[in-house]
Each structure stands twice: as structure tokens, then as C-alpha cells.
């Protein structure tokens, strides 16, 4: 398998197959696959649906289509069941992250999510992400976990996305009506025709259907993330994946993930300020692959909040040497510049990060 870090999205139809609460029926094979990936040195983040389905029987509803608050209550109680269900398949710890679109759009929260995921993975934990259904009103909602999974793949800098449901992949015609419908093994260009083939959702438990899976694939491949749409109810697909075969529909990334990310940092993200470094810090960043520490900063220019991008300048030559995402706002940076990382807590009363710009969030120019 040709990836280092993957996001695996698991649909409600796999978590709660008969809509009768959580089940281990399909999750066991998925969990075994995750464990094998981890043993091969790969990092995995799960995006799991199923909280509403898992909590459905525990909240009175009386209608096949419950109201939004009723569904939110189902999600709230079901989330606990769903997490406990996942944890029983792993020896390593699982962690829960509930996020909304609003969180991903906000620079400060985006960087918080990124930092949390980074530390969880460094510690061998399996992060399990779901939409925060309690607060996710329409404008806050990603709306479906397929698109959420693509955004999580971006924020976590994954290089592969697996979207697992109970559908084999993308067919050229609707397989429910056409026995001759053929599975498309590889899609290199996502066109209107591909969306037309996707049709509408097939499963009453699932919210997304094929359209949102293709939207997610589109987001991912544009950003250098290989994507697979697979049938997670067939346990043999995991053996095939482990052998390097493609058991569903594969969307090839347009370019390597690190290249796409560097491009995004370099050309797309606008700098909101400048952080000027002394000679030692310049040398550490350029020649030693180091992060930017507060001790090396001797001037801050512009106005920015945490999570925004800044130019990194050699204070002696005034040359721009790099660009990166700053963990601190200008105001906070002014208070901690020149100090050691261990002094941040005394100066600010808290320490959101020991580094000013993490190496992974920086591109040398
Ligand atoms: N967040 C919802 C749940 O956990 C699912 C949304 C989706 O499947 O797209 O039930």
C-alpha cells in the first residue's frame, strides 16, 4: 500500500447495519485492516458516522423521519455507543473529535484541530472524528461525513482517503435497475458525467449517497490525496488492499500530497504579516529542518491571528526565506519573542504551542 497517512471514512450502514444500534458485524474486518496498517508503520485517522443510527432506538421518535433536535439527541447518546463499539476492537487507545464546518473555517480552530491530530498520531492513538451534531445547524454543518472526511484528510495532511460504505464503488449505471451496470475501477477526471452516474443515495440509513462521495474524492485528489470508494461490508476488500490491489473505484491524486501542500502554502495562502529571525534561527530553519522557536524571533510586522500565514524573514538581510502558518497572534508573539519555549506559560498564562511555526507548516522559498 502506497501511503503513509490515511483517513478511513466508515458509513452508518457499516456501523449500524440493520439500523438496530451498533454492531461489530463489519467493524471487525475494518479494525483488523487498521491494525495491520499501523503495524506496517502507517498512520490512520477514522471518520465514523453512525451516531444517529446507534442512538435511534434510545430516543422516542414515533416518525420514520425524526426532527432535527430528536436526531441531535440520538447522535448524542449514540456517539457514546459508537465510540465504545470501536474501542473494543483495538488494543491501542481511540480518541474522539467532534467538529463542525465552522471549526474548520476558523483559522485558530483549524490549527487547534491540526495540532491535536498531530499529537494523537505521534502517540499511537486512533483519532475518531464525527460531525458535532449537537451544535451543527445548517450553516455550521459540513452536512455529510464524506465531505468531512476529505476536510479531515486535508487538515491532517493525509495522502490517502478510503470511503467505506455498502456500495462497491462508482457504477456506469444504477446497479439497482441495470443488472449490466459495470463498476468503474479508476476515475482520472471527475466530470459532470461522473456525477450523473452517481445518482442518488441507495441506503435509508446513510445520509450522503454516491454524490457526496464523489465530491469528497474531488476535494481530495485536487489536494494530492489518492481516494478509494469501497464496499466495507466485503471483508475480502481489505486483503486486496493489503496486496496493493484496487477492489473498488480509485481516484488518482493530481499530484503528490506534499507537493500540493507546499504549493498551497507557497502560492495560495496569503501572508498576513512577517516574522523576522536572527541568524541562528535562520540557519536552523534553512539548514537543519527546524521549526521556528520564540527565542529566534526578533521582530514581528503586520497584524495576524493564530493560524494565519506569515512570511519568515532573515532580519539581517531582510530577505524572505520561508513562509508558514503561525501558531500565535501578533499580540501574543510580541509578548513571547526572544524567550525560551518553556517561558511561554509564565508570559501568557498558557502555552498553546512550544513552537511559533511548526516545521510541517512551513515551506522554504
Ligand atoms: N454525523 C452523522 C452520524 O454520526 C452522520 C453524517 C453522515 O453519515 O454523513 O450519524
How would you summarize this macromolecular structure in one to three sentences?
With 365 residues, the protein is of the alpha/beta class. The chain has helices at residues 12-15, 27-39, 51-55, 68-87, 101-105, 107-122, 145-155, 192-198, 209-222, 236-242, 257-268, 279-287, 330-336, 344-348; strands at residues 5-10, 43-48, 94-99, 126-131, 160-165, 186-187, 226-231, 249-251, 271-277, 297-302, 309-314, 319-325, 362-364. Strands 3-4-2-1-5-7-8-6 form an 8-stranded mixed β-sheet, sandwiched between helices.
Q: What's the number of extended β-strand segments?
A: 13
CATH architectural grouping of the largest domain: 3-Layer(aba) Sandwich
The tally of domains stands at 2
Overall geometry:
globular
Distance between the termini: 32 Å
Mean pLDDT: 92
Radius of gyration: 22 Å
Per DSSP, the total helix count is 14
- Ligands: glutamic acid
What string, H for helix and E for strand, traces the elements in order? EHHEHHEHHEHEEHHEHEHEHEEEHHE
Poorly predicted residue ranges: 203-207
CATH superfamily of the largest domain: Acetylglutamate kinase-like
Percent strand equals 15-25%
Instruction: State the major sheet.
Output: 8 strands, mixed
Main sheet strand line-up: 3-4-2-1-5-7-8-6
**Structural classification:** alpha/beta
In percent, how helical is the residue content?
A: 25-40%
Using the coordinates shown, work out and report the CATH topology of the largest domain: Carbamate kinase
Instruction: Report the CATH C-level class of the largest domain.
Output: Alpha Beta
